[in-house]
From TrEMBL:
Organism whose genome encodes this protein: Tuber borchii
Known role: Part of the endoplasmic reticulum membrane protein complex (EMC) that enables the energy-independent insertion into endoplasmic reticulum membranes of newly synthesized membrane proteins.
Record PANTHER family: TETRATRICOPEPTIDE REPEAT PROTEIN
Protein name: ER membrane protein complex subunit 2
Matching InterPro entries: EMC2-like, TPR-like_helical_dom_sf, TPR_EMC2
Lineage: Eukaryota, Fungi, Dikarya, Ascomycota, Pezizomycotina
Membrane topology of this protein: Peripheral membrane protein
Gene3D superfamilies noted in UniProt: Tetratricopeptide repeat domain
Pfam family of the protein (one): TPR_EMC2
Keywords: Endoplasmic reticulum, Membrane, Repeat, TPR repeat
One GO CC annotation: EMC complex
Length: 309
């Protein structure tokens, strides 16, 4: 099997290599062999996909020489004026910058490109990422708001804007952005759970007791919807157990205590199953995030300790 097919096969197993350092390292180690092979000259969609993934992986692992070769061949094929190539060139310049001054120069180039073409989405997103790297969160929020004004169906950007508002403790704005995501992706179970999380956190940040209970009840609705859409979504069950536990402690007088206890017990049972099967490496149950599984185990243990007292 040639190296092109090997890389394509690897990417089919690891579709998001940049999220995993070991995957990025493996890909970047294949770059010199691929770049010197005859297969690298094939003009196919798959070949250029490999070039882009190798470029990103090499930048992440510090192989600037291989990254530069990948970028040069992409530029030769698609032209330096291609929106995507411009963004990749900017990313290369960011990764190889050695000072804040050099990063500021890259940012200025982005702004010059956007003056000529305000709707250049790849460059606009690179500019936002660079603003964040430079510590300019307010500027990134303003830029994302501008991007969404001419691209309102960009769910990824709404989610990104939500996370930025969250870091600034602007919880209502963060929730609004997540609700916009749901208008685009109505079955996004992770977004329902995230709204539940933000609602819970905002209520825990100094709200009155009555407002806090009302917010907890609202958060439960979102967590419940998330696990209704995805039965084994750990964060949904975790949030459901956590918040129902808070309401049980508050001893509500509106007749909902029994319902809260039932939901809490159901969430506990689901989390116990997830933790047990993950730790035993049961086939089909090993894809959970390990840190989230540990957090679920800790929540279960804390709950058991309270009962035993």
């Amino acid at each position: 099997m040639g190296i092109l097919k090997l890389l394509l096969s690897y990417l089919s197993i690891h579709p998001s290599p940049l999220r995993n350092p070991s995957t990025s390292l493996h890909l970047s180690q294949q770059a010199p062999a691929f770049l010197s092979s005859s297969e690298s000259a094939k003009d196919t969609q798959e070949t250029w996909l490999i070039y882009e993934q190798l470029l990103l992986s090499c930048l992440r692992t510090g192989d600037d020489n291989s990254a530069r070769l990948c970028l040069q061949r992409l530029s030769d094929r698609f032209g330096v004026d291609s929106a995507r190539v411009k963004a990749l060139t900017g990313l290369y310049d960011e990764a190889t910058s050695r000072s804040r001054g050099e990063l500021e120069a890259v940012l200025q180039r982005y702004q010059d490109i956007l003056k000529e073409d305000p709707t250049n989405m790849p460059i606009e997103k690179r500019r936002i990422s660079l603003l964040l790297s430079l510590g300019r969160t307010e500027g990134a929020i303003k830029a994302l708001t501008s991007l969404l004004s001419h691209s309102p169906n960009d769910a990824e950007s709404w989610a990104h804007l939500s996370s930025l508002y969250f870091t600034q403790r602007l919880y209502p704005q963060s929730i609004f952005c997540l609700e916009e995501v749901l208008l685009i992706l109505p079955n996004a179970y992770n977004i329902f759970a995230r709204i539940g999380e933000v609602t819970y956190i905002s209520a825990s940040a100094g709200a009155s007791n009555a407002d806090q209970i009302e917010a907890f009840e609202e958060a439960i609705k979102y967590f419940a919807r998330s696990v209704e859409l995805s039965e084994w979504y750990l964060r949904g069950w975790y949030g459901l157990k956590l918040v129902t536990g808070k309401l049980i402690q508050a001893k509500p007088s509106d007749g909902t205590l029994g319902k809260m206890e039932s939901l809490n017990q159901l969430a506990t049972e689901k989390l116990v199953q997830i933790v047990s099967k993950f730790r035993r490496n049961v086939k089909g149950w090993t894809g959970f995030d390990e840190a989230e599984v540990l957090a679920a185990k800790d929540l279960i243990d804390r709950d058991e300790q309270k009962i035993s007292r």
